[in-house]
Amino acid sequence: RRAVLLVKRRLIGPLVRHAGACLAVGSENRDFYLQFGASPSRVFHTPYSIDTERFEASGDIGRKSRHERLESLGLDPAKPVVLFAAKLQSWKRPLDVVGATDRLQGAVNLVIVGDGPLRDELDARASTRPWIRVLGFVNQTEIAEWYGVADLFVLPSDSEPWGLAVNEAMAAGALPIVSDSVGCAPDLVTADIGWVYETGNISALAHAISEGCPVADSDDRRAAARRRSSEWGIAATAFGIEQAMAALGSR
To answer: Mind listing the pLDDT tens digit for each residue in 67-81?
Structure first.
Protein backbone atom coordinates (compact mmCIF):
# COMPACT_ATOMS: atom_id res chain seq x y z
CA ARG A 1 0.00 0.00 0.00
CA ARG A 2 2.82 2.37 0.85
CA ALA A 3 4.61 1.51 -2.40
CA VAL A 4 1.45 2.30 -4.38
CA LEU A 5 1.18 5.67 -2.61
CA LEU A 6 4.79 6.50 -3.48
CA VAL A 7 4.22 5.66 -7.13
CA LYS A 8 1.08 7.81 -7.16
CA ARG A 9 2.99 10.72 -5.63
CA ARG A 10 5.67 10.50 -8.32
CA LEU A 11 3.22 10.19 -11.21
CA ILE A 12 0.24 12.25 -10.08
CA GLY A 13 1.95 14.78 -7.83
CA PRO A 14 3.59 16.82 -10.62
CA LEU A 15 0.34 16.90 -12.60
CA VAL A 16 -1.64 18.18 -9.63
CA ARG A 17 0.99 20.70 -8.52
CA HIS A 18 1.27 22.24 -12.00
CA ALA A 19 -2.45 22.24 -12.84
CA GLY A 20 -3.95 25.68 -13.23
CA ALA A 21 -7.17 24.52 -11.58
CA CYS A 22 -8.40 21.34 -9.91
CA LEU A 23 -12.11 20.51 -10.01
CA ALA A 24 -13.24 18.72 -6.83
CA VAL A 25 -16.50 16.73 -6.95
CA GLY A 26 -16.59 16.40 -3.16
CA SER A 27 -14.59 16.76 0.05
CA GLU A 28 -12.65 13.52 -0.40
CA ASN A 29 -11.67 14.59 -3.92
CA ARG A 30 -10.59 17.98 -2.54
CA ASP A 31 -8.45 16.22 0.10
CA PHE A 32 -6.90 14.13 -2.69
CA TYR A 33 -5.77 17.24 -4.57
CA LEU A 34 -4.38 18.84 -1.42
CA GLN A 35 -2.58 15.63 -0.49
CA PHE A 36 -0.82 15.65 -3.84
CA GLY A 37 0.34 19.24 -3.57
CA ALA A 38 -2.43 21.47 -4.97
CA SER A 39 -2.75 24.94 -3.49
CA PRO A 40 -6.15 25.38 -1.78
CA SER A 41 -6.75 28.47 -3.93
CA ARG A 42 -6.56 26.31 -7.07
CA VAL A 43 -9.15 23.73 -5.92
CA PHE A 44 -12.70 24.55 -6.99
CA HIS A 45 -15.91 22.97 -5.74
CA THR A 46 -17.65 21.41 -8.76
CA PRO A 47 -20.02 18.87 -7.18
CA TYR A 48 -20.87 15.55 -8.79
CA SER A 49 -24.36 16.59 -9.74
CA ILE A 50 -27.68 15.53 -11.25
CA ASP A 51 -30.76 17.26 -12.61
CA THR A 52 -32.32 17.58 -9.17
CA GLU A 53 -35.56 19.13 -10.42
CA ARG A 54 -36.27 16.12 -12.64
CA PHE A 55 -35.74 13.67 -9.78
CA GLU A 56 -37.84 15.77 -7.43
CA ALA A 57 -40.72 15.74 -9.91
CA SER A 58 -40.40 11.98 -10.54
CA GLY A 59 -40.17 11.34 -6.82
CA ASP A 60 -43.43 13.20 -6.27
CA ILE A 61 -45.10 11.03 -8.91
CA GLY A 62 -43.83 7.89 -7.18
CA ARG A 63 -44.89 9.10 -3.75
CA LYS A 64 -48.43 9.83 -4.91
CA SER A 65 -48.76 6.36 -6.43
CA ARG A 66 -47.04 4.58 -3.54
CA HIS A 67 -50.09 2.74 -2.24
CA GLU A 68 -51.13 1.41 -5.64
CA ARG A 69 -47.59 0.38 -6.63
CA LEU A 70 -47.02 -1.59 -3.45
CA GLU A 71 -50.41 -3.26 -3.59
CA SER A 72 -49.75 -4.30 -7.20
CA LEU A 73 -46.63 -6.11 -5.96
CA GLY A 74 -48.50 -7.77 -3.11
CA LEU A 75 -46.67 -5.68 -0.49
CA ASP A 76 -48.26 -4.02 2.53
CA PRO A 77 -48.42 -0.22 1.93
CA ALA A 78 -48.59 0.33 5.69
CA LYS A 79 -45.00 -0.86 6.08
CA PRO A 80 -41.95 1.34 5.42
CA VAL A 81 -40.21 0.72 2.08
CA VAL A 82 -36.48 0.06 1.77
CA LEU A 83 -35.08 0.36 -1.76
CA PHE A 84 -31.89 -1.09 -3.25
CA ALA A 85 -31.24 0.03 -6.84
CA ALA A 86 -27.93 -0.99 -8.43
CA LYS A 87 -26.32 -3.77 -10.41
CA LEU A 88 -26.78 -7.09 -8.66
CA GLN A 89 -23.13 -7.93 -8.20
CA SER A 90 -21.13 -8.92 -5.15
CA TRP A 91 -19.29 -5.66 -4.52
CA LYS A 92 -22.59 -3.77 -4.38
CA ARG A 93 -23.55 -6.12 -1.49
CA PRO A 94 -27.32 -6.46 -2.15
CA LEU A 95 -27.38 -9.61 0.01
CA ASP A 96 -26.44 -7.45 3.00
CA VAL A 97 -29.74 -5.61 2.65
CA VAL A 98 -31.62 -8.91 2.54
CA GLY A 99 -29.77 -10.04 5.66
CA ALA A 100 -30.55 -6.79 7.45
CA THR A 101 -34.26 -6.98 6.66
CA ASP A 102 -34.28 -10.62 7.81
CA ARG A 103 -33.30 -9.34 11.25
CA LEU A 104 -36.31 -7.03 11.24
CA GLN A 105 -38.60 -10.04 10.68
CA GLY A 106 -40.78 -8.57 7.96
CA ALA A 107 -41.30 -5.16 9.58
CA VAL A 108 -40.34 -3.44 6.31
CA ASN A 109 -40.82 -3.99 2.59
CA LEU A 110 -37.66 -4.43 0.53
CA VAL A 111 -37.79 -3.55 -3.18
CA ILE A 112 -34.74 -4.49 -5.24
CA VAL A 113 -34.21 -2.85 -8.63
CA GLY A 114 -31.49 -4.02 -10.99
CA ASP A 115 -30.04 -7.04 -12.72
CA GLY A 116 -26.75 -8.91 -12.68
CA PRO A 117 -24.93 -12.07 -11.54
CA LEU A 118 -26.75 -12.25 -8.18
CA ARG A 119 -30.23 -12.05 -9.70
CA ASP A 120 -31.00 -15.78 -9.38
CA GLU A 121 -29.89 -15.89 -5.74
CA LEU A 122 -31.94 -12.80 -4.89
CA ASP A 123 -34.98 -14.24 -6.66
CA ALA A 124 -34.58 -17.43 -4.63
CA ARG A 125 -34.40 -15.53 -1.37
CA ALA A 126 -37.37 -13.35 -2.31
CA SER A 127 -39.42 -16.48 -2.99
CA THR A 128 -39.30 -17.37 0.72
CA ARG A 129 -39.66 -13.82 2.05
CA PRO A 130 -43.05 -12.20 1.41
CA TRP A 131 -41.70 -8.73 2.16
CA ILE A 132 -39.16 -8.77 -0.72
CA ARG A 133 -39.74 -8.07 -4.40
CA VAL A 134 -37.01 -8.14 -7.09
CA LEU A 135 -38.09 -6.00 -10.03
CA GLY A 136 -35.07 -6.53 -12.27
CA PHE A 137 -33.98 -3.85 -14.71
CA VAL A 138 -36.16 -0.75 -14.98
CA ASN A 139 -35.47 2.39 -16.98
CA GLN A 140 -34.17 5.64 -15.52
CA THR A 141 -37.59 7.30 -15.34
CA GLU A 142 -39.13 4.40 -13.45
CA ILE A 143 -36.19 4.18 -11.05
CA ALA A 144 -36.68 7.86 -10.22
CA GLU A 145 -40.32 7.18 -9.37
CA TRP A 146 -39.37 4.20 -7.19
CA TYR A 147 -37.05 6.51 -5.24
CA GLY A 148 -40.20 8.47 -4.39
CA VAL A 149 -42.01 5.32 -3.28
CA ALA A 150 -39.14 4.45 -0.92
CA ASP A 151 -38.77 5.67 2.62
CA LEU A 152 -35.14 4.58 2.75
CA PHE A 153 -32.55 4.08 0.01
CA VAL A 154 -29.65 1.76 0.90
CA LEU A 155 -26.26 1.72 -0.85
CA PRO A 156 -24.10 -0.88 0.97
CA SER A 157 -21.18 -1.11 -1.51
CA ASP A 158 -17.67 -2.35 -0.75
CA SER A 159 -16.28 0.46 -2.89
CA GLU A 160 -18.06 3.47 -4.35
CA PRO A 161 -16.00 6.48 -5.50
CA TRP A 162 -19.10 8.67 -5.19
CA GLY A 163 -22.53 6.98 -5.47
CA LEU A 164 -24.64 9.22 -7.72
CA ALA A 165 -27.74 7.15 -6.95
CA VAL A 166 -27.66 8.72 -3.47
CA ASN A 167 -28.03 12.20 -5.02
CA GLU A 168 -30.94 10.90 -7.07
CA ALA A 169 -32.72 9.18 -4.19
CA MET A 170 -32.37 12.19 -1.91
CA ALA A 171 -33.72 14.54 -4.58
CA ALA A 172 -36.73 12.25 -4.93
CA GLY A 173 -37.28 12.34 -1.17
CA ALA A 174 -35.83 9.04 0.09
CA LEU A 175 -33.58 9.03 3.15
CA PRO A 176 -30.12 7.53 2.54
CA ILE A 177 -28.38 4.73 4.39
CA VAL A 178 -24.88 4.14 3.04
CA SER A 179 -21.80 2.16 3.99
CA ASP A 180 -18.70 4.08 5.01
CA SER A 181 -17.09 3.00 1.72
CA VAL A 182 -19.44 5.25 -0.27
CA GLY A 183 -17.59 8.39 -1.35
CA CYS A 184 -20.51 10.81 -1.06
CA ALA A 185 -21.17 9.96 2.59
CA PRO A 186 -19.17 12.84 4.15
CA ASP A 187 -20.85 15.41 1.91
CA LEU A 188 -24.45 14.23 1.56
CA VAL A 189 -25.34 11.87 4.40
CA THR A 190 -25.26 14.10 7.45
CA ALA A 191 -26.74 13.02 10.78
CA ASP A 192 -29.91 15.07 10.28
CA ILE A 193 -30.58 13.39 6.94
CA GLY A 194 -29.48 9.75 6.94
CA TRP A 195 -27.20 7.07 8.33
CA VAL A 196 -23.65 5.86 7.64
CA TYR A 197 -22.63 2.43 8.91
CA GLU A 198 -19.57 0.18 8.82
CA THR A 199 -19.25 -1.64 5.49
CA GLY A 200 -20.35 -5.26 5.75
CA ASN A 201 -21.77 -4.89 9.26
CA ILE A 202 -25.25 -6.32 8.74
CA SER A 203 -26.27 -5.72 12.36
CA ALA A 204 -25.38 -2.03 12.01
CA LEU A 205 -27.30 -1.85 8.73
CA ALA A 206 -30.35 -3.46 10.34
CA HIS A 207 -30.11 -0.95 13.20
CA ALA A 208 -29.98 1.97 10.77
CA ILE A 209 -33.02 0.67 8.89
CA SER A 210 -34.85 0.19 12.19
CA GLU A 211 -34.03 3.76 13.21
CA GLY A 212 -35.20 5.07 9.87
CA CYS A 213 -38.49 3.18 9.74
CA PRO A 214 -40.22 5.19 10.89
CA VAL A 215 -38.73 8.28 12.51
CA ALA A 216 -40.83 10.96 14.11
CA ASP A 217 -39.13 13.69 12.09
CA SER A 218 -39.14 11.81 8.76
CA ASP A 219 -40.86 14.69 6.93
CA ASP A 220 -38.22 17.12 8.20
CA ARG A 221 -35.46 14.69 7.22
CA ARG A 222 -37.00 14.22 3.78
CA ALA A 223 -37.10 17.98 3.23
CA ALA A 224 -33.51 18.28 4.46
CA ALA A 225 -32.43 15.51 2.06
CA ARG A 226 -33.99 17.35 -0.85
CA ARG A 227 -32.37 20.65 0.16
CA ARG A 228 -28.97 19.01 0.48
CA SER A 229 -29.30 17.30 -2.87
CA SER A 230 -30.29 20.59 -4.52
CA GLU A 231 -27.03 22.11 -3.28
CA TRP A 232 -25.29 19.46 -5.39
CA GLY A 233 -27.19 20.24 -8.58
CA ILE A 234 -26.04 21.19 -12.05
CA ALA A 235 -26.09 24.91 -11.25
CA ALA A 236 -23.53 24.41 -8.47
CA THR A 237 -21.28 22.44 -10.82
CA ALA A 238 -21.53 25.11 -13.51
CA PHE A 239 -20.71 27.83 -10.97
CA GLY A 240 -17.59 25.98 -9.84
CA ILE A 241 -16.38 25.56 -13.41
CA GLU A 242 -17.00 29.25 -14.08
CA GLN A 243 -14.92 30.15 -11.03
CA ALA A 244 -12.10 27.91 -12.22
CA MET A 245 -12.15 29.40 -15.71
CA ALA A 246 -12.17 32.93 -14.30
CA ALA A 247 -9.18 32.11 -12.10
CA LEU A 248 -7.29 30.70 -15.10
CA GLY A 249 -8.12 33.77 -17.17
CA SER A 250 -6.73 36.09 -14.52
CA ARG A 251 -3.31 34.44 -14.50
So the answer is: 999 999 999 999 999
